[in-house]
């Protein structure tokens, strides 16, 4: 079955820049040039929340792994952390000196990596809300930065036409990929952590192995590619392009599967849900669209056929260099493992839910503490002011 448009959300007043699903798929966050962050409910007839706080365009949004926080980056040079509730309270991170283009949580939810037009990538602690360190070897705007699934590496993409791979612990640049012929708009890690994919203004998507640092695949399109997202199975990649299309690439076959037309004007961003049954896209037409993936889940692991190289994709001139022997092939997943009984699965599910709930409570506590800390600081400042004024009054009286 082909991917199908499930629903679309209207409410933003300018181009959409970024979309992301919460863990449980109940919510979808979007950022826009209209300076707002919106949280849409995937349940019908539920109202959307509009969060106002940024003073300029919101360039990027992402849910924390537990789904209880949303990070956003803006042209106002700040990063904000929101509690996606009715109140929509947020705390502000300031360290970048120019537009923040990208925000990304580590998979444990403890760290945040941001990328900016100030040519740096910065890493922050989420709970203490402190700036930790900068990575600064790019010589132009940094459009995107992502943690690897295990949190040990960071990858960044820049207008200096490079994609850089960093070691988070040593803070060193391990490798620069320089094959792009234009600005690199977006980059992300394959779910296995062994590969990265990058999208560029040279109309290409490139896939590299980060262990051998070699180019594995190269997809040539007809328009600037703005954004990409790996399917959680690791077998598919969805892209959003300036020609208004979304394309789904089959990474195992190395070919184009689907071209989807929905947006009027450039498709600016795209993201799979955390389990891959949906994906969302945003465009400069101010619309957020949600698509049902409709790949048969049983197929996810079954397409582990050997690479065909040199296939032309969909009649367009997509050339392909393809040697996907890089361990991208995840283990074959059977739709149902009959060896495990129901009770065990239910037990595991409820345990997972409990853990998720605890993580969520922690996030909310952290956020509350941080808001209290901010208020305390304000109170301290006020107190200091009062004392200083008293001193002045006393001095005046004595003189």
From TrEMBL:
Cellular-component GO terms for this entry: centriole; ciliary basal body
Pfam families assigned: WD40
Spans through the membrane: none
SUPFAM superfamilies xref list: WD40 repeat-like
InterPro entries: WD40/YVTN_repeat-like_dom_sf (IPR015943), WD40_PAC1 (IPR020472), WD40_repeat_CS (IPR019775), WD40_repeat_dom_sf (IPR036322), WD40_rpt (IPR001680), WDR55/POC1 (IPR050505)
PROSITE patterns (alphabetical): WD_REPEATS_1, WD_REPEATS_2, WD_REPEATS_REGION
Gene3D superfamilies xref list: YVTN repeat-like/Quinoprotein amine dehydrogenase
Protein keywords: Coiled coil, Repeat, WD repeat
Biological process according to GO: cilium assembly; microtubule-based process; multicellular organismal-level homeostasis
Task performed by this protein: May play an important role in centriole assembly and/or stability and ciliogenesis.
Record-given protein name: POC1 centriolar protein homolog A
Source species: Spizaetus tyrannus (black hawk-eagle)
Lineage per the UniProt record: Eukaryota, Metazoa, Chordata, Craniata, Vertebrata
């Amino acid at each position: 079955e082909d991917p199908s448009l499930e629903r679309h959300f209207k409410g933003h007043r300018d181009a959409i820049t970024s979309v992301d699903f919460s863990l449980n798929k109940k919510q979808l966050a979007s950022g826009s040039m209209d300076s707002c962050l919106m949280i849409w409910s995937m349940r019908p007839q539920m109202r959307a929340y509009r969060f106002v706080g940024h003073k300029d365009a919101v360039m990027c949004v992402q849910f924390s792994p537990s789904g209880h926080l949303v990070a956003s980056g803006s042209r106002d040079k700040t990063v904000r952390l929101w509690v996606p509730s009715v109140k929509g309270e947020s705390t502000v991170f300031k360290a970048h000196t120019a537009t923040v283009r990208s925000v990304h949580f580590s998979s444990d939810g403890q760290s945040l990596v941001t990328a900016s037009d100030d040519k740096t990538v910065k890493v922050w602690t989420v709970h203490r809300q402190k700036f930790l360190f900068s990575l600064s070897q790019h010589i132009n705007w940094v459009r995107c930065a992502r943690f690897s699934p295990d949190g040990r590496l960071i990858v960044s993409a820049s207008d200096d036409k490079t994609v850089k791979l960093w070691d988070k612990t040593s803070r060193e640049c391990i490798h620069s990929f320089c094959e792009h012929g234009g600005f690199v708009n977006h980059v992300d890690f394959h779910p296995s952590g062994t590969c990265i994919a990058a999208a560029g203004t040279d109309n290409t998507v490139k896939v590299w192995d980060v262990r051998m640092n070699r180019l594995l695949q190269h997809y040539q399109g007809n328009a600037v590619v703005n954004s990409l997202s790996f399917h959680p199975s690791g077998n598919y990649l969805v892209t959003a392009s300036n020609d208004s299309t979304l394309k789904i690439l089959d990474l195992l076959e190395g070919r184009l599967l689907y071209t989807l037309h929905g947006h009027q004007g450039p498709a600016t961003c795209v993201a799979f849900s955390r389990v891959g049954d949906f994906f969302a896209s945003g465009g400069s037409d101010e619309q957020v669209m949600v698509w049902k993936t409709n790949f048969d889940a049983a197929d996810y692991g079954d397409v582990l056929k050997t690479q065909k190289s040199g296939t032309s994709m969909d009649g367009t001139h997509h050339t392909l260099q393809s040697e996907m022997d890089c361990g991208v092939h995840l283990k074959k997943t059977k739709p149902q493992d009959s060896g495990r009984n129901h009770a065990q699965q239910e037990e595991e599910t409820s345990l997972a839910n409990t853990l998720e709930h605890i993580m969520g409570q922690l996030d909310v506590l952290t956020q509350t503490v941080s808001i209290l800390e901010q208020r305390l600081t304000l109170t301290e400042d006020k107190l200091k002011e009062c004392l200083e004024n008293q001193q002045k009054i006393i001095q005046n009286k004595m003189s």
